[in-house]
Here is the input.
Amino acid sequence: MSILVVGISHNSAPVQLLEQLAIDHDGLHKLLQDVAHTEHVTEATVIATCNRLEVYSEVDRFHGSVEQLSRLLVERSGVRVEDVLPHLYVHYDDGAVSHLFKVAAGLDSMAVGEGQILGQTRAALQLGQELGTVGPALNTLFQQALRVGKRSHAETDIDKAAPSLVSASLERARATVGDVSGLRVVVLGAGAMAGLATATVSRLGAREIVVVNRTPERAERLAAEYGGRAAALADIAIEVAQADVVIACAGARSVLVTPQMVGTRPVALIDLALPHDIDPACADVPGATLIDLGTLADELQASEAGQEVVAVRGIVSQEVTAFLAARRQAQVTPTVVALRTMATNVVEAEMARLDGRLPALDPTTRDEVLRAVRRVADKLLHEPTVRVKELANETGAISYERALAELFALDPEAVSAVTRPGLGEVEQ
Here is the structure.
């Protein structure tokens, strides 16, 4: 069994295509269930963010699985196959481990080092556990990825050195409206990104914060946390017309802000949603500046935070090496256990034969013979079992555990009967 990743992100596709692939809650569940029921797939989960859609799976076959998972991603998008396929990427086995660790550490984010991806990675694991599509392989992988992400933020200042989408967009908006301090800001949405936006403008001293959301209770909760006020979605036109800055993070199924809502005074329209919340035509309204994910992508990628990024890359490299070594040794363990079980059975069979031939053998002598036979078996097995664990960490085409099983004629059923650890709680 091997880990396979098939995905698309801001690094491989334009924002316009990512928008067409954007997935809601029901769509995410449907995609994951379809993947889990695909031939050759034994475990699966999906990381879905505003600029990333990745399927993680454990598979028993590479080529057929790549084709099937790619087809699922393309078919659900409604976009022509030839328009999507060139933007898909594939990571397999060791490469898949390295990719997930980079994602969890924030190295693959549009805003390098941003911390939201850690929560989104945790959500992917929790979803797979809830739907029963995650098993021991992906559980172990994702739990370790979460630890890698937490270690990267604890041991470096990557999250402080690299700008978030919100802070980067507000910096760009300064040319139109100046500093946020003293301005009226309208936030559309009440999810994680909207929470980050509200917290950021509050910290920067916004004069008034208005949270607009389809669900009034969520808008009121977020607004109250930062001393703002909530507004109904029905009043969005009034709120937008009076705003200095609009930050849209709702990801609604249709645009929420149209050119007709935008006044003629200077206003910064920041659209951080996929699919987009602000009609692109708003950019043509006099006095309005539209900032979206497409306009932010290049400058955010160029802002990689020097020494902090280098440090995180070092952490990821260490963790990938350690994880792969542990996994290879774990793959050897069932064979080693089966070999030692076989030796134990041989010793017991020989002692039973001895009992039949020498029924009058006194217990003290029998115990001494038993200890001697066990020592011989242990010494004969010690070097092969130690060496096979060492050799398992070497790269190459040779499967040493398979060779060991062949040399000692181990029963495949005995090897597979050695159970793997069960699922644990999601790392918080």
About this structure: The first helix runs from residue 15 to 21. Residues 418-423 have pLDDT under 50 and may be disordered. The beta strands are 2-9, 41-49, 52-59, 89-92, 184-188, 208-213, 229-232, 245-248, 267-271, 288-292.
